[in-house]
Amino acid sequence: MDGGTAPAGGPSDAEMVARLSRRFEPCMQILSPTYVSASRAEQRVAIDFVATPQFCHSGNVVQGGFLTAMIDGTMAQAVLVATGLTLTPSSLEIKMTFLNPGRPGVLKAEAWVVRMGKSICFIEGKLDDADGNPVARASSTARLFPLPQRATAG
Fold first, then answer.
1. Beta strands in 6-146 (DSSP E)
2. Which class is 13-151 in CATH?
3. Which pTM does this prediction carry?
4. Which of 68, 101, 118, 144 has a CA 20 to 30 Å removed from the CA of 83?
5. d(CA 78, CA 41)
């Protein structure tokens, strides 16, 4: 399946957002995620995060590991949405490019599936500050695994 071609059937975009919003893993919950949008047809999601001062090191700069977690988590959500909550990714590699310091406040992540095969997918993502200034960009290669249905049950 190439980016932009979603399989037929399964839950609607709104149903997936509702299910996934209730089921953020604890490692994502500490980043205060809020779904903005999700499109299975476009294989794309947008999630806002709240970076707190506790995420910062010198100079009030959000530590890069937190920024990476925001983009990585959003890229995983893009795969979940693209597959209608049937497959979950396990990262084989992630490439991060930090463009500007992340500061406390709202950070806006978007991620999309570039290409999806039967067992491997390629995903990209971006993280901007609340004013739309670029903070980081990422690409990832991930192996796909069946998603246990309990992970997204109503």
1. 34-39, 44-51, 56-57, 61-62, 87-98, 105-116, 120-129, 134-146
2. alpha beta
3. 0.88
4. 68
5. 11
Tokens of 83: 């597959």
Looking up tokens 């903005």, which residue turns up? 36
Kindly state the DSSP code that residue 130 receives in the 8-state scheme.
Answer: T
> What are the extents of the domains in the chain?
13-151
Work out the percent of the chain whose per-residue pLDDT is above 70: 92
Alpha-carbon distances of 127 from 97, 100, 115, 139, rounded to whole Å = 10, 10, 20, 12
For 132, counting Cβ atoms within 10 Å of its Cβ (0-12 exposed, 13-18 middle, 19+ buried), the class is exposed
Left, alpha or beta for 27 (phi > 0: left; psi -120 to 50: alpha)? alpha
